[in-house]
Amino acid sequence: MKPHSNVVGAAIVKDGKVLALRRSDGIEQVIHKFEFAGGKVKEGETNEQALIRECREELSLEIEVGDLLNTVEYEYPELSITLSVYFVKPLSDYTLNVHEEERWIDCDKLEYGDWAPADKYFLGILKQGFVKARNVENAEHFALVNSIAREVMHETFDAISPEGQIDYVINLYLSPQAIEANIAQSGYVYKLVYFNGEVAGFYAYCPAKNFQSTFSEGTFLSKLYLKKFARGKKIITKILSSLSRPVYLTVKREDVKSVNLFKHYGFKIQQNLSADIGNGYILDDFLMGLGK
């Protein structure tokens, strides 16, 4: 019977690119092939403990272990392995201690032939994109949502908004205090979106009747902001599929790109809305709806 090993790997993803490490030694099937950082689980170790140790040894890298990407069984001529790959969050800089090359590769451009045989079984999930949403629940989450809002909203709206309006809107509606109050008092749910293990954006929603009393059913999608690297990855489709129909949202009238984007998903303009939010600023929006 072949010897068997439990092996762990680290999928380190940044801005839509995964860290690929080329081996300089090993059995014939893996030498000079790309792999995820990691190695054998020692007796008495958990997978997470082994992954932390391996990243320290191979990369001098401190990590936080995240979600399990997948587990596969693979048989090499000399041995069989159970390989579990986890998304990890780097907590420090790194250096190559045992590999001959590093390369950051766009997840949607991964090529199977460049990788060690067992590792390549995880590439399909990365190419398609592993999407997960987590509830926003604590002060750290509130601050993260606020940070994402500032990044995406300034990028999207500065060119079509009066000076100072975006910061005013963020401080009014998306400060950590406002987020906490919306969750506690107004029936809102905020979710952080993770794409291939890294924070990609957030969305917030509530029962449609909380937004407009004439709506007897459905969901009001209050916010949906994705970082640039996560756009065009079918994340919006997955978010919309999780919400009770009909779905309503508001879009800035001057934001033609977003209006057309939501029309692509089947939304239709239903109303013109204007709101005086103070400080001399007026929000002019379209209310758009997606039926059952």
Characterization of this structure:
There is one protein chain. With 292 residues, the protein is an alpha+beta fold. It is 26% helix and 38% strand. The strands form 3 sheets. Strands 9-10-11-12-13-15-14 form a 7-stranded mixed beta sheet, with helices on both faces. A 4-stranded mixed beta sheet has the order 5-1-7-6, with helices on one face. The chain is built from 8 helices and 15 strands.
List how many beta strands DSSP finds. 15
Round the Cα radius of gyration to an integer and report it: 23 Å
Q: Mean of residue pLDDT?
A: 95
How far do the termini sit from each other? 57 Å
Question: Judging from the principal axes of the Cα atoms, what is the shape?
Answer: elongated
Q: Structural class, please?
A: alpha+beta
Sheet with most strands: strand arrangement: 9-10-11-12-13-15-14
Contiguous uncertain segments of 5+ residues: none
Tally the helices: 8
**Strand composition percent:** 35-45%
H-E string: EEEEEHEEEHEHHHEEHEHEHEE
Major sheet size, sense and barrel closure? 7 strands, mixed
Measured as a percent range, the helix fraction is 25-40%
Topology:
Layout: E1 4-11, E2 13-14, E3 17-23, E4 34-35, E5 37-40, H1 47-59, E6 63-75, E7 80-90, E8 99-106, H2 123-128, E9 131-135, H3 139-157, H4 165-173, H5 176-185, E10 189-195, E11 198-207, H6 208-211, E12 219-226, H7 235-241, E13 247-252, H8 256-264, E14 268-278, E15 281-290
Parallel strand pairs: 1-7, 12-13
Antiparallel strand pairs: 1-5, 2-3, 3-4, 3-8, 6-7, 9-10, 10-11, 11-12, 13-15, 14-15
